[in-house]
DNA sequence: ATTATTTCTTGTCCCAGTTCAATGCACACC
DNA sequence: GGTGTGCATTGAACTGGGACAAGAAATAAT
C-alpha cells in the first residue's frame, strides 16, 4: 500500500516524524467502493472518516419536503464524513454520502481514530486544523449564498474545483451552488458569452 | 470570580475533575468590554477566544463592495473568536467582532489555551466538540440560506434565539438571515397575521 | 421638552432566479 | 441499430425578495 499521498496531505499543517506516520498508516484501512454507492444514509450513524485517494463523492441533505442540497464534493486528497456534532450526542445523521465515481479510500473508524490520538496525540492538532478549514470553507459558502449572484458563485466554484464540471453532472453543481439546474445552464451560457468577448 | 457558569457550560459534553476545572479556571482572564466596541477588525490577528458571561456580540464579514453579513450572534454561554483556519496559516482575519451590549467575558489567548491543552489534555476534546457544534450550525444555516424562504428562516431563528429580537436592532437579524431589513419587516407583519389567525 | 438620529414600516417598481414545459443530445443497453 | 433514459438547453410566465423612497415611531442627545 502506498501511503505517500495521504502522508503528504496530513503533513501540510503539522510536521510528523516517521514513527508518527507509521502509526498513522498502520491504523488506516483501505477501501474500494464502486460508483453510485450510498455510503451513509439519513438515520444511520456515521462510523467512518474517509480520505479520498481517487474518485469523487458528494455529501448532501434532503429536507422533509424532498429538497436536496449538496453540502460538499470530496475529490482526491479531501476527507469525507458526517463531521457534524451528532457524533457526540448519539443522534443519527441527517445527511447522505454517495460516491459519484469508482472510489478508493483510506478510512478511520471512531475506534481507530481514538487509538491514533492515544498513540500519537499530535494528530489531534492536524484533525483540528482540518475541522477549522472545513468550517472556514462552510462560512465562506454561507457568505456567498447570501451575498453573491449565481454568476459570481459559479465563477468562484470554477476556481475552487476547476475539474469538477468535467467529472459530474451539471445539476449536482447547481445543487451545490443553491440554484436551479436550468438557471445554471443559462448562467453558463452567459459566462461563455462574456469570455468570448474577452477573447 | 465565579466560574460556575463557564464550568457548567464546558462540562456539557465532557466530564472534568475538580483538578482539571481548577487548571481551566486559573488560565482564564476576566474582561469587561463596553457596548459598541470593535474587538477584532479585518486585517488583524485574532488573539482571543472569549466565553460570553453576559452581553451580546456580533461577528461579521464585509465584502469588497461593502456588503455586510452577520455570521454569528454570541450571547450568554457562547464562545466568540475568529475560528476560521486563518490562525494556522498566519493570515489575518477577514471578519469583525463587535459588542452590541456591555459585555463580560472569560478569555483565552492562543498561549493560555496551549497551556491548558498541555496541562489538561482532555480539554482538547471539549474544544473539538465546540468546533463540531459550530460547524453543524453553520452547515444548517447554509442549508437554510439555500432552501428556505424568509418566513421559514425567521421562524427557525425565533426558536433558536427567542430573546434576540428584544435585544438587538432588527436590521442585524435581517443581515444574519440574509434578507433585507425592509423585507424582514414585511415578513414579520405576515408572521404576526398568521399567528393572529391561530389565536 | 425639543430636536436629532436611528430604527421600523409600508408602498411601488423591478429583477434575479424559479417553475414548467418542450426540444435536443448523448449515452447505455438489449 | 433502434430506443429508452437521464441530462442539458432554451423559452415563457411567474414570484420572492431587493432597491428606493417617504413616513412613522422610538431612542438618544442637548
TrEMBL record, chains A, B:
Residues 31-117 form the Cyclic nucleotide-binding domain. CDD domains: CAP_ED. This is Crp/Fnr family transcriptional regulator.
